[in-house]
Amino acid sequence: MRPLKTLLLSATVLTLATPSFAATLEDAIMKAMETNPEVLIAERGKEAIEQELRQAKAGYLPTVDLTIGSGHERSNNTTTRNRADRQDNTGGHRSLWRNEARLIARQMVFDACETCHNVDQQEYRLESSMKNTKEVKENVSLRVVQAYLDVLRNQELVKLAQDNVDNHKKYLKQIEARSSSGRGSKADIRQAEGRLALAESTVYAAKGELKNAKATYVQVVGEKPEDLKAFKAPVEMLPTSRDEAVERAMANNPAIHSAKYDIRAADSAHRATKSAFYPRLDVELEANRAQNLDGTSEANNSYLAMARVSYNLYNGGADLARKRQQFARLEEAKDTLERDRREVEERMYEAWNDLETAKMRLKPLASHVSSSEETKKAYKSQFDIGQRSLLDLLDTEVEYFNSKTAYINGKYAVDFAVYNVLTTSGDILLAFNK
């Protein structure tokens, strides 16, 4: 029983220690959203702006400051001089150990709406950051889709290349058998061996591309691809026309929404600079307690309730320059929006054209595969009865391999093009219910 228990325990530990790998595209997307550094950076940036918003809102609340001090004080004033005239000849100086404490509560009453504009600015910045985070997630999702498709595509290409090698090996054996029976030549064997070597080199190249695809997958998703499942692209989510696709992108693309909020944030920042040209009103409550103050060895306590108006009369033109600076930032934000609109429109045109091109190419590519496969079978039959040369047969094998390779690449190009359109229109996360 002890060996059995040990075996079961070891199996349990191995099961728990085995990392989980994403098997579906949805799993890969979820994993990337949790671990991809670009997504995490965007999330942290949003969290930082949330705290900046809290800082701005603090301007509505009172501030309470406590100051405590203790130290040596040497005084020479009317009080100390009168004391010196009456008691001793100290020259009017007196040294005491001074202790003091001050508590001030200050509440802003009027700041020409500087605080409210600062709050508005941070709220708009937060909205912009949220849209930017969505854009990052969509772009990362598209990269996950591409990495996922590349792994599947290269796996198919490796299998196709290996099948091609197997076929060439069969031909070589057949040629060797024909040569042994006197129906073939050494030249045919050498030719078959050369084509086999070329086919084997293609396998190595395909495996290298697969390794690269898996490395990209790890970089984007954060884990190794294992047993990836095929999926169907959500073509039902696509717009019905290019114009509708562009219209949807203009309405939904997060980059455009982020730029719009940046304009509002810049406008609020510009409005906040105008408060510098108005007075500020604060209400202050102050309590002071002191001992040995100004040469008097007695307690000195005071309590104040004040309304204070502060108004800057001149600071070298800094306020005016700051106002002009924020106005320039506002115009910059407007120009950025226009740039983003044009870029999104261009990207959608390109994405839609890529989709249409990929779809149109797929049918001829499939026809090429079918035709080359039929030709290969026909040539094989003719070769067996001596009506076709070995070179003809090997050429048809190469043509079939190339046609099948082109079809596999074209098939996955269509799937990627679908997700590329959905990304540009701001809808890719909806395809995964994110």
Stretches where pLDDT falls below 50 for ≥5 residues? 1-18
Sheet with most strands: strand arrangement? 1-2-3-4
Name of the CATH first level: Mainly Alpha
Mean pLDDT: 90
Total tally of structural domains:
1
List keywords for this structure.
single chain; 434 residues; alpha+beta; four-stranded antiparallel β-sheet; 4 strands; 14% strand; disordered N terminus
Explain what the structure shows.
The structure is a single chain. The chain is 69% helix and 14% strand. By secondary structure, it is α+β, with helices and mostly antiparallel strands. The chain has one domain: Outer membrane efflux proteins (OEP), CATH 1.20.1600.10. Strands 1-2-3-4 form a 4-stranded antiparallel beta sheet, with no helix packed on it. A hairpin with a 2-residue loop joins strand 3 (280-293) and strand 4 (296-310). The longest helix is centred in the middle third of the chain and has 67 residues, at 114-180. The protein is elongated.
